[in-house]
Amino acid sequence: MSASFTPEDDARFAADVAQAAGRVLLDIRARENGTTEGRELGRLGDAEANRLILARLSADRPGDAVLSEESADDPARLDAQRVWIIDPLDGSREYGIQGRADWAVHVGLWEAGKGMTASAVAQPALGAVYSTVKTGQRAPSSGRLTLVVSDSRPPYYIEAVAGDVGGDVVTMGSAGAKAMAVVRGDVDAYVHSGGQWEWDSAAPVGVALAAGLHCSRIDGTPLLYNQSHPYLPDLLICPTELAEPLLASIARHATRQADTGRVAMAREYIKALTSHDATKLRLAEGCRRVENGDVTGESGQHIRDDLEQSSRYRRVTAVRDVDIEEWESFVVARYRIELDDNTTLSTVEHFAIPAGDITAITTIVVPDRQSVDPAGP
Predict the structure, then answer these.
(1) Closest CA to 301 of 135, 42, 72, 23
(2) Where along the chain do its domains lie?
(3) Which residue of 9, 37, 156, 373 has the fewest CB atoms within a 10 Å radius of its CB?
(4) Which residue would you say has higher pLDDT here, 143 or 270?
(5) pTM of structure
(6) Which has the higher per-residue pLDDT, 98 or 34?
(7) Domain topology for 145-253
(8) The pLDDT value given to residue 368
(9) Residue 195 near residue 262, CB atoms below 8 Å
(10) H/E element holding 277?
(11) Class for domain 261-372, per CATH?
(12) Are 149 and 181 in contact (CB under 8 A)?
């Protein structure tokens, strides 16, 4: 059924769905004002916007596969001809802060052999929707270049790059908001390193490409979507004339090796041990955690709830000496955990990550020898 739709049909549909999800998010913000905020408001918005988008896709594009930030990964998408890559609420942290407008809704269509063919990004707080059919007129650049980066994870090399090209650095939330700022001409380039997922950039890149902009990894290689592991650690979006000097400068200053997707997922789990925030942790619904032979997590949701609320995880004050190895679809992490009573635990954690979710965690935890006997053996 879906094969009969033209790219223009799909783009208009994407824009309509993104706009509808945006209205839901605005309604939630107004309804929950003063009662729900921060992380919980973001989660509420994510869930309700995701339900709306999935319902629309099921009703109007039933033959297509879906990859959503807020749904379990279905490997069947890898054999599909058409896959909708969606982020129901990009910038959930910013959404949870009253007065912030730098959050977005992403709805993009990937097609086998073609890439991103129809995309839309809505910025509900601005009353704007951008699509591969209509992006508006980009304002010409004037004066010094402006490079926009994440306000929570700016690239470690960005000041050096700005110095090379004679530019200024500004920060903003939401990948979609930053990409659309380049599309409008509010800023000259969006540079990111430090990790993203396909849903963070798929629809924004589709819109930016339709607007004639350069979009690539920071090493100049293409941004590929609907991959077996949906992780993209970095990107550059800018006018074509700026691509060469920016890529050359980044090549000089970006010296750290990027994590693979599986390693990034393991790091997100380790990060949640101290942040007690499992919002971005990808766990399969049937994920089990076994520690020293005992089942300590019976489902993905159980593990998330424990990381955020359980008293035994609340005792974790720091994680250090992290060493991570990957082979095939597995990751092993070795690290030390510091508890609130100054005890240190040596931990070996084994993650099974066949595709876009962690499906099993096996853990060995023992008291660190140095914390038991400071004098050593």
Answers:
(1) 72
(2) 2-131, 145-253, 261-372
(3) 373
(4) 270
(5) 0.89
(6) 98
(7) D-Maltodextrin-Binding Protein; domain 2 (3.40.190)
(8) 79
(9) no
(10) none
(11) alpha beta
(12) no
